[in-house]
Amino acid sequence: MSPLELLLQQLINAVSIGSLYALMAIGLAMVFGILRLINFAHGDLIMVGSYVALLAQLLGLPFVAAAAAGVAASTVAGLAMERVAYRPLRGAHEIAMLLTSFSVTIFLENLAIILFRPTSRPFPAPAVLRSVIEMGRLRVAGLDLIAIAVAAVLLLALTLFVRRTNIGIAMRAASQDLLAARLVGINVNRVIATAFAIGSLMAGVVGLLWSARVGKVDPLMGFNPVLKAFVASVIGGLGSLPGAVIGAYVLGGLEILLQGLLPAGLTAYRDAFVFAVLIALLLFRPNGILGASEREKI
Amino acid sequence: MLKLQSVDVRYGHIHALKGISIEVRDGELVALLGANGAGKSTTLMCISGIVRPQSGSLVCDGIDLAKASSFDIVGLGVIQCPEGRRIFGGLTVLENLRMGAVRRPDRSGVRKDMERVFSLFPVLGQRRRQSGATLSGGEQQMLAIGRALMAAPRLLLLDEPSLGLAPLVVRAIFRVIRELHRQGVTILLVEQNVRQALAVADRGYVLSTGTVTLEGSGAELRANPEIEQAYLSSAPEAGR
Prior knowledge:
Helix content of chain A: over 70%
Mean pLDDT of chain A: 92
Oligomer: heterodimer
Largest sheet of chain B: 6 strands, mixed
Mean pLDDT of chain B: 93
Structural class of chain A: mainly alpha
Radius of gyration of chain B: 17 Å
Strand order of the largest sheet of chain A: 1-4
């Protein structure tokens, strides 16, 4: 491969993985923006959607229908999570909400272990998701292209939603000043539920793409993605939607870059280097790339 | 229109309101005066359903506000323009105004009120696509009042609209308050700028440490020696 081809190949890899992180990070960022809650249980929505999609396929549903069922299951699970675990804590201390999100994670993961056994199961995906397209000497996974396209469509739809619709503008307003939002008569509960629904829907989509990529599902599969999404939103600036997306692509690029540059013996420690870069970034920009200063948030 | 009777509010150990009773009648402009920490903002937050009273009653047009949610209270047309403006800095002027009307279904009425806000505050019309954070303090206050007007308030609660503004801007804000009063909007005005507030108010209440210590018409209060001594005798306010 020529250097240019290599660059292009790696760029596709970076954008593809960055797209998955972006879809995850948005869910975290939307909820954090309004509630100041870091919802670690967000990762488990990936697991819920993937298992439901797997079960639907085992029941004989075609992949598209199973995928829709999986995304719907993630969305419903996210809404239920908000209603059952977080709404009763409205106005509680941020630490109480954070601890609750850990409890929700522990509950969902153990529920999955009981229901589906702790071991992983193969996740069947249709041929198109496993295809490899050869363009000259470039080899591009069909799944990568699909991930990039799906993320582009969802991000565009989200942008239109938060700019054009009343509930979307209300969501931005609520994340800037929750009290002022209540005083103008924004239905804060509805806005929060909508934020959970959108984030969970995106987590469901990520679940499908992720499971198809690694070819299996397991009860703890949500942990790594939510950690990466958290890192991405910290890089971009916690609570900022554009920041979350930028941070996700920066993280994806960083991972692929280090994967390519590190000597063979050290690639296993790639994530350690990624986190070292994150620490360095936060030393210089403590609020992330687009993060507002604390004063502005109050 | 609005009647508070023996309203009591505590935050932990702090007894913020000690049984205050005030009334605002239809079409009136009532001033709520007092020093920092007297309980003025708490009173407004109570009316808006953000802070809940421990006892006492708040009734607006026969509806018990102590049991209504802040969402429902906005629906009744009781609209607060909060202290410190609290506009949405990341939203444009237009989006801020749109959020003010978020509970209204009548699109034509909303459009008409948008024009009305732009005629009261022409500078907002010029800056309609700018984000709120880029406005000056005075423009932000105008936006905050404009946002409240977009809700078509029947009772407008204004909390310190002149706070921290240049004298010229204060005068413009009070001109608008007078104009709204003339148009028949019922207003409860919280102010530390006592001289200006009493000049426009029909009636006023003076709060101190959570109790109503004085009440009367604007003219009576202006002539009251206690007010004179506490608020008006110091160096004359700029911008008169």
